[in-house]
Amino acid sequence: MNVDVDGIGSVSGTLVVPVMENACEVSSLNLTEVAEGLVETISHVIENGDFKGKAGSSLTIHSTAGKAILVGLGKEKDLDTDAIRNAGASLVSGRGKQHGKEFTARLAGLSSEHAAAYIEGAILRDYDYDQYKSKDDDDDDDGELSLHAQVDDVAGVAAAAGLSAQVATGVHLARDLGNAPPNDLYPMAYAEKAIKWAEGKDNATVTVIEYEEALKLGMGGLCAVGMGSDRKPCMVIFELNSDAGEQPPVIVGKGITFDTGGISIKPSASMDEMKYDMHGSATVFGLMQALWASGHAGRVVGISCMAENMPASNAQRPGDVITTMSGKTVEVLNTDAEGRLVLSDGLHKASQYNPEFIIDLATLTGAVVIALGHEATGMWCNDDDLAERLKNSGNACGELIWPMPLLPAFEKDMKDSKIADLRNLGGTRWGGSNTAAAYLKQFVGTTGEGDDEKQIPWAHLDIAGTAWGAKTNKMVAHGATGIHVRALHHLLTQK
Ligand code: BES
Ligand code: MN
Ligand code: ZN
Asked: Is the CB of 178 under 6 A from ligand 1?
Protein backbone atom coordinates (compact mmCIF):
# COMPACT_ATOMS: atom_id res chain seq x y z
CA MET A 1 0.00 0.00 0.00
CA ASN A 2 1.21 3.48 -0.86
CA VAL A 3 0.54 5.84 2.01
CA ASP A 4 1.05 9.57 2.09
CA VAL A 5 0.20 11.88 4.93
CA ASP A 6 -0.78 15.50 4.45
CA GLY A 7 -3.05 18.24 5.74
CA ILE A 8 -6.59 18.68 4.45
CA GLY A 9 -6.54 19.20 0.70
CA SER A 10 -8.14 18.02 -2.48
CA VAL A 11 -9.69 14.56 -2.71
CA SER A 12 -8.46 11.82 -5.03
CA GLY A 13 -10.30 8.56 -5.44
CA THR A 14 -12.91 7.63 -2.87
CA LEU A 15 -13.33 9.97 0.09
CA VAL A 16 -13.27 8.19 3.46
CA VAL A 17 -15.00 10.00 6.32
CA PRO A 18 -14.83 8.66 9.88
CA VAL A 19 -17.99 9.54 11.79
CA MET A 20 -18.30 9.50 15.55
CA GLU A 21 -21.60 8.36 17.06
CA ASN A 22 -23.51 11.20 18.83
CA ALA A 23 -21.17 13.80 17.36
CA CYS A 24 -22.83 13.11 14.06
CA GLU A 25 -23.18 16.57 12.62
CA VAL A 26 -22.11 17.55 9.18
CA SER A 27 -20.27 20.57 10.54
CA SER A 28 -17.94 18.29 12.52
CA LEU A 29 -16.90 16.27 9.47
CA ASN A 30 -14.19 18.43 7.88
CA LEU A 31 -15.69 18.43 4.41
CA THR A 32 -13.71 21.36 3.07
CA GLU A 33 -12.40 20.90 -0.45
CA VAL A 34 -14.93 18.14 -1.09
CA ALA A 35 -17.01 18.49 -4.26
CA GLU A 36 -20.24 20.33 -3.51
CA GLY A 37 -22.51 17.61 -4.80
CA LEU A 38 -20.85 15.02 -2.59
CA VAL A 39 -21.08 17.26 0.48
CA GLU A 40 -24.79 17.67 -0.23
CA THR A 41 -25.37 13.95 -0.46
CA ILE A 42 -23.37 13.25 2.72
CA SER A 43 -25.27 16.00 4.55
CA HIS A 44 -28.55 14.58 3.37
CA VAL A 45 -27.68 11.11 4.63
CA ILE A 46 -26.50 12.34 8.02
CA GLU A 47 -29.31 14.82 8.56
CA ASN A 48 -31.87 12.16 7.73
CA GLY A 49 -30.35 9.93 10.39
CA ASP A 50 -29.50 7.29 7.78
CA PHE A 51 -26.00 6.93 9.16
CA LYS A 52 -25.40 7.18 12.90
CA GLY A 53 -21.70 6.42 13.19
CA LYS A 54 -22.12 3.15 15.10
CA ALA A 55 -18.88 1.23 15.61
CA GLY A 56 -18.21 -1.19 12.77
CA SER A 57 -20.85 0.31 10.46
CA SER A 58 -20.07 1.82 7.10
CA LEU A 59 -22.03 3.32 4.23
CA THR A 60 -21.03 3.76 0.64
CA ILE A 61 -22.20 6.84 -1.19
CA HIS A 62 -22.22 7.26 -4.96
CA SER A 63 -23.07 10.64 -6.32
CA THR A 64 -22.44 12.25 -9.63
CA ALA A 65 -19.91 14.42 -7.79
CA GLY A 66 -17.88 11.50 -6.46
CA LYS A 67 -17.75 8.48 -4.17
CA ALA A 68 -17.44 8.34 -0.41
CA ILE A 69 -17.41 5.81 2.40
CA LEU A 70 -18.72 6.87 5.80
CA VAL A 71 -17.04 4.86 8.55
CA GLY A 72 -18.68 4.57 11.96
CA LEU A 73 -16.28 4.87 14.88
CA GLY A 74 -18.82 4.46 17.70
CA LYS A 75 -19.00 6.66 20.80
CA GLU A 76 -16.08 8.95 21.41
CA LYS A 77 -15.62 7.69 24.97
CA ASP A 78 -15.23 4.08 23.74
CA LEU A 79 -12.80 4.94 20.99
CA ASP A 80 -9.44 3.37 21.68
CA THR A 81 -6.44 2.43 19.59
CA ASP A 82 -7.69 -1.12 19.01
CA ALA A 83 -11.09 0.05 17.74
CA ILE A 84 -9.58 2.54 15.37
CA ARG A 85 -6.94 0.11 14.10
CA ASN A 86 -9.85 -2.25 13.33
CA ALA A 87 -11.67 0.56 11.52
CA GLY A 88 -8.59 1.14 9.35
CA ALA A 89 -8.39 -2.58 8.58
CA SER A 90 -12.07 -2.69 7.62
CA LEU A 91 -11.51 0.01 5.01
CA VAL A 92 -9.33 -2.51 3.19
CA SER A 93 -11.45 -5.62 3.86
CA GLY A 94 -14.80 -3.95 3.23
CA ARG A 95 -14.05 -1.84 0.20
CA GLY A 96 -15.98 -2.74 -2.91
CA LYS A 97 -14.53 -3.11 -6.37
CA GLN A 98 -16.38 0.07 -7.35
CA HIS A 99 -14.12 2.09 -5.05
CA GLY A 100 -11.03 1.44 -7.09
CA LYS A 101 -7.56 1.58 -5.61
CA GLU A 102 -7.32 5.13 -4.35
CA PHE A 103 -8.67 6.54 -1.08
CA THR A 104 -8.49 9.89 0.63
CA ALA A 105 -9.14 9.52 4.35
CA ARG A 106 -10.17 12.64 6.27
CA LEU A 107 -8.55 11.81 9.60
CA ALA A 108 -8.31 15.43 10.73
CA GLY A 109 -10.06 15.81 14.07
CA LEU A 110 -8.68 12.50 15.34
CA SER A 111 -5.75 12.52 17.76
CA SER A 112 -2.36 11.81 16.18
CA GLU A 113 -2.29 8.43 17.91
CA HIS A 114 -5.70 7.49 16.53
CA ALA A 115 -4.96 8.71 13.02
CA ALA A 116 -1.75 6.65 13.06
CA ALA A 117 -3.59 3.56 14.33
CA TYR A 118 -6.17 3.88 11.53
CA ILE A 119 -3.39 3.93 8.95
CA GLU A 120 -1.61 1.04 10.67
CA GLY A 121 -4.77 -1.09 10.53
CA ALA A 122 -5.14 -0.44 6.81
CA ILE A 123 -1.49 -1.28 6.12
CA LEU A 124 -1.58 -4.50 8.14
CA ARG A 125 -4.81 -5.71 6.55
CA ASP A 126 -3.54 -5.04 3.03
CA TYR A 127 -2.14 -8.54 2.55
CA ASP A 128 -3.02 -11.47 0.32
CA TYR A 129 -1.35 -14.82 0.01
CA ASP A 130 -1.91 -15.51 -3.68
CA GLN A 131 1.46 -16.83 -4.83
CA TYR A 132 -0.03 -20.22 -5.63
CA LYS A 133 -3.00 -18.90 -7.63
CA SER A 134 -2.74 -18.91 -11.39
CA LYS A 135 -3.34 -15.40 -12.64
CA ASP A 136 -6.49 -14.71 -14.62
CA ASP A 137 -5.96 -12.65 -17.73
CA ASP A 138 -8.87 -10.43 -16.86
CA ASP A 139 -7.87 -10.15 -13.23
CA ASP A 140 -8.07 -6.44 -12.56
CA ASP A 141 -7.03 -6.87 -8.96
CA ASP A 142 -3.40 -6.04 -9.62
CA GLY A 143 -1.78 -2.83 -8.52
CA GLU A 144 -1.28 -1.34 -5.11
CA LEU A 145 -3.78 0.53 -2.99
CA SER A 146 -3.11 4.21 -2.34
CA LEU A 147 -4.15 5.85 0.88
CA HIS A 148 -3.92 9.63 1.16
CA ALA A 149 -4.33 10.40 4.84
CA GLN A 150 -5.31 13.98 5.66
CA VAL A 151 -4.54 14.80 9.27
CA ASP A 152 -3.89 17.67 11.68
CA ASP A 153 -0.43 16.67 12.93
CA VAL A 154 1.24 15.90 9.60
CA ALA A 155 4.78 15.38 10.89
CA GLY A 156 3.78 13.21 13.86
CA VAL A 157 1.38 10.97 11.93
CA ALA A 158 3.72 10.68 8.94
CA ALA A 159 6.51 9.42 11.22
CA ALA A 160 4.21 6.89 12.89
CA ALA A 161 2.81 5.71 9.55
CA GLY A 162 6.33 5.30 8.19
CA LEU A 163 7.27 3.13 11.15
CA SER A 164 4.07 1.08 10.77
CA ALA A 165 4.94 0.42 7.14
CA GLN A 166 8.45 -0.73 8.07
CA VAL A 167 7.23 -3.04 10.81
CA ALA A 168 4.48 -4.37 8.52
CA THR A 169 7.12 -5.72 6.14
CA GLY A 170 8.09 -8.05 8.99
CA VAL A 171 4.48 -8.97 9.81
CA HIS A 172 3.77 -9.78 6.17
CA LEU A 173 6.98 -11.80 5.86
CA ALA A 174 5.98 -13.84 8.93
CA ARG A 175 2.57 -14.48 7.33
CA ASP A 176 4.18 -15.53 4.05
CA LEU A 177 6.33 -18.05 5.90
CA GLY A 178 3.40 -19.29 7.98
CA ASN A 179 1.11 -19.68 4.98
CA ALA A 180 3.71 -21.42 2.82
CA PRO A 181 2.74 -25.02 2.02
CA PRO A 182 4.85 -27.60 3.85
CA ASN A 183 6.05 -29.29 0.66
CA ASP A 184 7.85 -26.07 -0.23
CA LEU A 185 8.75 -24.73 3.20
CA TYR A 186 10.87 -27.40 4.90
CA PRO A 187 13.69 -26.76 7.40
CA MET A 188 16.52 -26.12 4.92
CA ALA A 189 14.21 -24.08 2.67
CA TYR A 190 13.63 -21.74 5.62
CA ALA A 191 17.40 -21.64 6.20
CA GLU A 192 18.03 -20.72 2.57
CA LYS A 193 15.50 -17.91 2.73
CA ALA A 194 17.22 -16.62 5.87
CA ILE A 195 20.66 -16.70 4.23
CA LYS A 196 19.30 -14.86 1.24
CA TRP A 197 17.67 -12.29 3.49
CA ALA A 198 20.97 -11.47 5.20
CA GLU A 199 22.82 -11.03 1.91
CA GLY A 200 23.70 -7.39 1.34
CA LYS A 201 22.66 -6.32 4.86
CA ASP A 202 25.76 -4.97 6.63
CA ASN A 203 24.41 -5.36 10.12
CA ALA A 204 22.72 -8.75 9.78
CA THR A 205 24.17 -12.26 9.79
CA VAL A 206 22.58 -15.66 9.49
CA THR A 207 24.31 -18.85 10.60
CA VAL A 208 22.83 -22.25 9.83
CA ILE A 209 23.69 -25.28 11.93
CA GLU A 210 22.90 -28.15 9.58
CA TYR A 211 21.90 -31.64 10.67
CA GLU A 212 25.37 -33.22 10.67
CA GLU A 213 26.78 -30.40 12.76
CA ALA A 214 23.77 -30.40 15.07
CA LEU A 215 24.46 -34.11 15.70
CA LYS A 216 28.10 -33.33 16.50
CA LEU A 217 27.07 -30.51 18.83
CA GLY A 218 24.82 -32.91 20.71
CA MET A 219 21.53 -31.25 19.81
CA GLY A 220 19.66 -34.42 20.66
CA GLY A 221 16.22 -32.80 20.89
CA LEU A 222 16.32 -31.12 17.50
CA CYS A 223 17.85 -34.17 15.82
CA ALA A 224 15.46 -36.70 17.37
CA VAL A 225 12.43 -34.78 16.13
CA GLY A 226 13.79 -34.18 12.64
CA MET A 227 15.58 -37.44 11.88
CA GLY A 228 12.48 -39.25 10.61
CA SER A 229 12.15 -36.88 7.68
CA ASP A 230 14.17 -36.80 4.47
CA ARG A 231 14.14 -33.06 4.96
CA LYS A 232 16.61 -32.86 7.81
CA PRO A 233 16.40 -30.44 10.73
CA CYS A 234 18.58 -27.40 11.28
CA MET A 235 19.01 -24.46 13.61
CA VAL A 236 19.00 -21.00 12.06
CA ILE A 237 20.63 -18.18 14.01
CA PHE A 238 19.98 -14.55 13.09
CA GLU A 239 22.04 -11.76 14.53
CA LEU A 240 21.48 -8.03 14.14
CA ASN A 241 24.13 -5.47 15.10
CA SER A 242 26.49 -8.03 16.63
CA ASP A 243 28.90 -5.29 17.79
CA ALA A 244 26.26 -3.36 19.69
CA GLY A 245 26.08 -4.54 23.26
CA GLU A 246 27.19 -7.42 25.43
CA GLN A 247 23.85 -8.77 26.51
CA PRO A 248 21.44 -9.22 23.61
CA PRO A 249 17.81 -10.17 23.93
CA VAL A 250 17.48 -13.63 22.36
CA ILE A 251 14.24 -14.68 20.68
CA VAL A 252 13.72 -18.40 20.06
CA GLY A 253 11.10 -19.89 17.73
CA LYS A 254 9.59 -23.35 17.32
CA GLY A 255 9.86 -24.16 13.64
CA ILE A 256 8.11 -27.46 12.92
CA THR A 257 7.47 -27.09 9.20
CA PHE A 258 4.95 -29.92 9.46
CA ASP A 259 3.78 -31.77 12.55
CA THR A 260 2.22 -35.15 11.77
CA GLY A 261 2.75 -36.12 15.41
CA GLY A 262 5.42 -38.61 14.33
CA ILE A 263 4.88 -42.21 15.45
CA SER A 264 2.30 -40.86 17.95
CA ILE A 265 0.48 -39.78 14.80
CA LYS A 266 -2.27 -37.18 14.85
CA PRO A 267 -5.81 -37.81 13.61
CA SER A 268 -6.22 -36.66 10.01
CA ALA A 269 -8.95 -34.03 10.60
CA SER A 270 -7.41 -30.58 10.14
CA MET A 271 -3.92 -32.04 10.06
CA ASP A 272 -3.16 -29.64 7.21
CA GLU A 273 -3.16 -26.86 9.80
CA MET A 274 0.05 -28.29 11.19
CA LYS A 275 1.88 -26.45 8.42
CA TYR A 276 1.51 -23.46 10.75
CA ASP A 277 3.49 -25.28 13.43
CA MET A 278 6.51 -23.21 12.44
CA HIS A 279 4.90 -19.88 13.26
CA GLY A 280 7.27 -19.30 16.19
CA SER A 281 10.13 -19.35 13.71
CA ALA A 282 8.08 -17.24 11.25
CA THR A 283 7.75 -14.59 13.96
CA VAL A 284 11.49 -14.70 14.68
CA PHE A 285 12.28 -14.12 10.99
CA GLY A 286 9.58 -11.44 10.63
CA LEU A 287 10.82 -9.68 13.75
CA MET A 288 14.36 -9.57 12.38
CA GLN A 289 13.00 -8.01 9.19
CA ALA A 290 10.90 -5.48 11.14
CA LEU A 291 13.89 -4.49 13.30
CA TRP A 292 16.14 -4.20 10.28
CA ALA A 293 13.62 -2.21 8.22
CA SER A 294 13.04 0.23 11.07
CA GLY A 295 16.78 0.78 11.53
CA HIS A 296 17.03 -0.74 15.01
CA ALA A 297 20.56 -0.13 16.31
CA GLY A 298 20.69 -2.57 19.24
CA ARG A 299 21.99 -6.12 19.18
CA VAL A 300 19.33 -8.85 18.84
CA VAL A 301 19.73 -12.60 18.36
CA GLY A 302 17.03 -14.87 16.87
CA ILE A 303 17.17 -18.67 16.97
CA SER A 304 14.82 -20.84 14.90
CA CYS A 305 14.62 -24.56 15.65
CA MET A 306 13.57 -26.12 12.36
CA ALA A 307 12.41 -29.71 11.90
CA GLU A 308 9.72 -31.77 10.19
CA ASN A 309 8.01 -34.27 12.49
CA MET A 310 7.33 -37.39 10.41
CA PRO A 311 6.59 -41.06 11.11
CA ALA A 312 9.22 -43.26 9.42
CA SER A 313 11.39 -46.28 10.05
CA ASN A 314 14.12 -43.91 11.17
CA ALA A 315 11.81 -41.72 13.28
CA GLN A 316 12.12 -41.55 17.04
CA ARG A 317 9.80 -43.83 19.01
CA PRO A 318 7.75 -43.39 22.16
CA GLY A 319 10.01 -44.87 24.83
CA ASP A 320 13.24 -43.52 23.38
CA VAL A 321 15.57 -41.66 25.72
CA ILE A 322 17.44 -38.78 24.14
CA THR A 323 20.27 -36.57 25.40
CA THR A 324 19.81 -32.88 24.77
CA MET A 325 22.61 -30.37 24.22
CA SER A 326 22.34 -29.31 27.87
CA GLY A 327 23.28 -32.86 28.92
CA LYS A 328 19.82 -33.49 30.36
CA THR A 329 18.18 -36.71 29.25
CA VAL A 330 14.54 -36.93 28.24
CA GLU A 331 12.25 -39.93 28.03
CA VAL A 332 10.10 -39.40 24.94
CA LEU A 333 6.65 -40.68 25.91
CA ASN A 334 4.82 -39.06 23.02
CA THR A 335 6.48 -38.05 19.77
CA ASP A 336 3.72 -35.47 19.21
CA ALA A 337 5.11 -33.43 22.12
CA GLU A 338 7.98 -32.49 19.79
CA GLY A 339 8.02 -28.71 20.08
CA ARG A 340 9.46 -28.86 23.58
CA LEU A 341 12.18 -31.24 22.36
CA VAL A 342 13.50 -28.88 19.67
CA LEU A 343 13.19 -25.96 22.08
CA SER A 344 15.28 -27.83 24.65
CA ASP A 345 18.28 -27.22 22.40
CA GLY A 346 17.12 -23.77 21.27
CA LEU A 347 16.82 -22.50 24.84
CA HIS A 348 20.15 -24.03 25.82
CA LYS A 349 21.81 -22.41 22.83
CA ALA A 350 20.12 -19.07 23.65
CA SER A 351 21.48 -19.23 27.20
CA GLN A 352 25.05 -19.25 25.81
CA TYR A 353 24.73 -15.67 24.50
CA ASN A 354 24.83 -14.09 27.98
CA PRO A 355 21.38 -12.76 27.14
CA GLU A 356 19.59 -9.86 28.75
CA PHE A 357 16.52 -12.09 28.50
CA ILE A 358 15.16 -14.96 26.42
CA ILE A 359 11.69 -15.08 24.86
CA ASP A 360 10.49 -18.19 23.08
CA LEU A 361 7.46 -18.40 20.79
CA ALA A 362 5.85 -21.73 20.01
CA THR A 363 2.61 -23.22 18.73
CA LEU A 364 3.22 -25.60 21.58
CA THR A 365 -0.07 -27.01 22.88
CA GLY A 366 -3.67 -27.54 21.88
CA ALA A 367 -4.43 -26.97 25.57
CA VAL A 368 -3.66 -23.26 25.37
CA VAL A 369 -6.39 -22.94 22.73
CA ILE A 370 -8.79 -24.61 25.19
CA ALA A 371 -7.75 -22.11 27.86
CA LEU A 372 -7.61 -18.83 25.96
CA GLY A 373 -9.30 -19.50 22.62
CA HIS A 374 -7.94 -17.43 19.79
CA GLU A 375 -8.02 -14.20 21.77
CA ALA A 376 -4.71 -14.19 23.60
CA THR A 377 -1.30 -15.80 23.70
CA GLY A 378 -0.41 -17.60 26.94
CA MET A 379 2.69 -16.33 28.72
CA TRP A 380 4.76 -18.17 31.31
CA CYS A 381 7.57 -16.07 32.77
CA ASN A 382 10.16 -16.34 35.53
CA ASP A 383 10.63 -12.56 35.84
CA ASP A 384 7.93 -10.09 36.89
CA ASP A 385 9.50 -7.13 35.12
CA LEU A 386 9.79 -8.95 31.78
CA ALA A 387 6.23 -10.27 32.17
CA GLU A 388 4.91 -6.75 32.76
CA ARG A 389 6.78 -5.38 29.77
CA LEU A 390 5.51 -8.15 27.50
CA LYS A 391 1.93 -7.71 28.66
CA ASN A 392 2.14 -3.94 28.06
CA SER A 393 3.68 -4.41 24.62
CA GLY A 394 0.92 -6.84 23.68
CA ASN A 395 -1.75 -4.39 24.84
CA ALA A 396 -0.16 -1.49 22.98
CA CYS A 397 -0.28 -3.46 19.72
CA GLY A 398 -3.62 -5.25 20.11
CA GLU A 399 -1.79 -8.59 20.38
CA LEU A 400 -2.89 -9.77 23.82
CA ILE A 401 -0.40 -11.68 25.97
CA TRP A 402 -1.97 -13.30 29.04
CA PRO A 403 -0.06 -14.44 32.17
CA MET A 404 -0.27 -18.14 33.01
CA PRO A 405 1.21 -19.98 36.02
CA LEU A 406 4.71 -21.41 36.26
CA LEU A 407 4.27 -23.67 39.28
CA PRO A 408 6.74 -26.03 41.01
CA ALA A 409 4.15 -28.83 40.90
CA PHE A 410 4.23 -28.79 37.09
CA GLU A 411 8.03 -28.96 37.09
CA LYS A 412 7.92 -31.90 39.48
CA ASP A 413 5.52 -33.69 37.15
CA MET A 414 7.87 -33.31 34.18
CA LYS A 415 10.87 -34.58 36.21
CA ASP A 416 8.99 -37.70 37.18
CA SER A 417 10.55 -40.12 34.68
CA LYS A 418 11.63 -43.48 36.07
CA ILE A 419 14.65 -43.70 33.79
CA ALA A 420 15.66 -40.20 32.60
CA ASP A 421 16.05 -36.67 33.96
CA LEU A 422 12.82 -35.52 32.36
CA ARG A 423 9.85 -36.85 30.43
CA ASN A 424 8.21 -34.98 27.58
CA LEU A 425 4.67 -35.69 28.72
CA GLY A 426 2.92 -34.85 32.00
CA GLY A 427 1.39 -37.58 34.14
CA THR A 428 -2.17 -36.44 33.33
CA ARG A 429 -3.74 -34.42 30.52
CA TRP A 430 -4.71 -31.59 32.88
CA GLY A 431 -2.98 -28.26 32.54
CA GLY A 432 -1.10 -29.44 29.46
CA SER A 433 0.18 -25.97 28.59
CA ASN A 434 1.51 -25.48 32.11
CA THR A 435 3.44 -28.74 32.17
CA ALA A 436 4.88 -27.91 28.73
CA ALA A 437 6.09 -24.53 30.02
CA ALA A 438 7.50 -26.12 33.17
CA TYR A 439 9.44 -28.55 30.97
CA LEU A 440 10.93 -25.69 28.90
CA LYS A 441 12.08 -23.91 32.06
CA GLN A 442 14.54 -26.78 32.67
CA PHE A 443 16.60 -25.62 29.69
CA VAL A 444 16.93 -21.95 30.56
CA GLY A 445 20.43 -21.24 31.83
CA THR A 446 21.58 -19.24 34.83
CA THR A 447 23.78 -16.20 35.46
CA GLY A 448 25.92 -15.24 38.45
CA GLU A 449 27.60 -17.58 40.88
CA GLY A 450 27.02 -18.93 44.36
CA ASP A 451 24.33 -16.96 46.19
CA ASP A 452 24.02 -14.63 43.21
CA GLU A 453 23.13 -17.41 40.81
CA LYS A 454 19.76 -16.94 39.21
CA GLN A 455 17.94 -18.07 36.14
CA ILE A 456 18.13 -15.86 33.05
CA PRO A 457 14.92 -13.82 32.71
CA TRP A 458 12.78 -15.86 30.32
CA ALA A 459 9.28 -15.85 28.92
CA HIS A 460 7.54 -18.58 26.97
CA LEU A 461 4.74 -17.52 24.62
CA ASP A 462 2.37 -20.28 23.52
CA ILE A 463 0.91 -18.93 20.28
CA ALA A 464 -1.06 -22.05 19.27
CA GLY A 465 -4.32 -20.06 19.45
CA THR A 466 -3.13 -16.78 17.96
CA ALA A 467 -0.88 -17.83 15.08
CA TRP A 468 -3.79 -18.72 12.78
CA GLY A 469 -7.56 -19.23 12.86
CA ALA A 470 -8.07 -16.05 14.90
CA LYS A 471 -11.33 -14.85 13.34
CA THR A 472 -11.58 -11.80 15.61
CA ASN A 473 -8.15 -10.60 14.49
CA LYS A 474 -9.25 -7.93 12.03
CA MET A 475 -5.70 -7.40 10.78
CA VAL A 476 -5.82 -10.57 8.73
CA ALA A 477 -8.33 -12.22 6.37
CA HIS A 478 -7.33 -15.82 7.04
CA GLY A 479 -4.30 -18.00 7.61
CA ALA A 480 -1.12 -17.01 9.41
CA THR A 481 -1.44 -13.84 11.48
CA GLY A 482 2.21 -12.83 11.89
CA ILE A 483 1.43 -12.63 15.60
CA HIS A 484 3.83 -10.78 17.91
CA VAL A 485 6.16 -9.35 15.32
CA ARG A 486 4.68 -6.01 16.35
CA ALA A 487 4.53 -6.64 20.09
CA LEU A 488 8.15 -7.83 20.19
CA HIS A 489 9.29 -4.98 17.96
CA HIS A 490 7.58 -2.64 20.41
CA LEU A 491 9.21 -4.36 23.39
CA LEU A 492 12.70 -4.27 21.90
CA THR A 493 12.58 -0.71 20.56
CA GLN A 494 10.72 1.27 23.20
CA LYS A 495 13.00 3.40 25.34
N1 BES B 1 1.79 -28.41 17.38
C2 BES B 1 1.07 -29.09 18.38
C3 BES B 1 0.19 -28.17 19.20
C4 BES B 1 -1.07 -27.69 18.53
C5 BES B 1 -2.16 -28.53 18.39
C6 BES B 1 -1.18 -26.39 18.13
C7 BES B 1 -3.32 -28.06 17.81
C8 BES B 1 -2.35 -25.92 17.57
C9 BES B 1 -3.42 -26.76 17.40
C10 BES B 1 2.03 -29.77 19.35
O11 BES B 1 3.20 -30.24 18.81
C12 BES B 1 1.32 -30.93 19.93
O13 BES B 1 1.04 -31.83 19.20
N14 BES B 1 1.05 -30.90 21.23
C15 BES B 1 0.36 -31.91 21.88
C16 BES B 1 1.05 -32.16 23.19
C17 BES B 1 0.63 -33.41 23.88
C18 BES B 1 1.04 -34.64 23.10
C19 BES B 1 1.25 -33.41 25.25
C20 BES B 1 -1.08 -31.46 22.11
O21 BES B 1 -1.30 -30.27 22.38
O22 BES B 1 -1.98 -32.29 21.99
MN1 MN C 1 3.02 -32.19 18.02
ZN1 ZN D 1 3.88 -29.26 17.13
From this structure: no
